[in-house]
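Helix-turn-helix domain-containing protein
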Amino acid sequence: MLLTSDSQPKAEVQAAPLRNGAHQIRTVEAHDADDHARNLTAWEQSYDQITPGQFHGMLAELQMPQMQVFLEQTSQAVRQSCCVWPDAFWFGLQGHADSGRVNGRINGRLGDAGAIMVRPGNCEFELVTPVDYAIYGIVIQRNALLCVADQMGCRIDWLRLASAEVLHVTEPAKTACLQTLAYLLSEDDVCSERNPVASLELPQQAVMMAMLSMLDTSEVDRAVSNSFMRRQRIVAQARDYVLAHRDQVITVPELCERLHVSRRTLQYCFEDVLGISPIQYLRIIRLNGARRHLREGLSGSLTVRDVAADWGFWHFSQFSSDYRKLFGQSPSESLRQRTH
């Protein structure tokens, strides 16, 4: 367990001082994966769309003095590079109750319906989420969680929590936490846009208590094996090489030669860590990079052909066809939608 009880009784839980002013739920949608990534307040993120079709993302977010809670929904499978602000912990809870659904991966590790994900702030991590995915997120300042745990007579094993990626929790504790989050982010809740509240003392305390209940019943998932860590390194090295040579046509045999692994080993590494093949990955990372380049539009003289060449696509008609299949629009449409 990540919590231990002190022998001496503690005072009743008191919430920390709150800022003045009204609070309300912020709801925003996006039709581009990277736009959606930027909508989450105070996170450093970039998203690569994996599955074909138009992207649609929804975010409902509630900021509290020492905490952020949100519900994120994505229509397509996405690879996410994420980083939370320092001196905080992020907890992720899959929003679907159906245990038969495909689960997300954190740093290559496949979660399950009875687990939650966790990562400390200022530490980059990777998520791979499937089609039609919903995830509740809680970001809590470390000192705030420490204060409430201390008042409850509990001590948190911070070293184990910081090193954990997947925590197995009891179903009642997880269900109670999900119900609390769903209620807070509901449009019918007292914190909704139609009826903002001046104080979030009770909601913040409710989330803290739900989190401590889960941590009190949690078990850290088994340590990552050396072989899995090696597969993670190979995938990371492959990504770095592709991005460093983005204007070149990188092939799987070339990757194998550069990384000193067999084709079978490379295939196994990608399927185990990301759930896709190296060939799929090579195409997806370059197409997402080209889309990002097109939509940034840093130069007024930028053309689709320029961007295609910059990302190693020399067969222009094939690039346009693959681009439309993945994103549901042509490269020229993305260029016209570029951000200013």
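thats it. The chain has a mean pLDDT of 85. The two ends are 49 Å apart (CA to CA). bye
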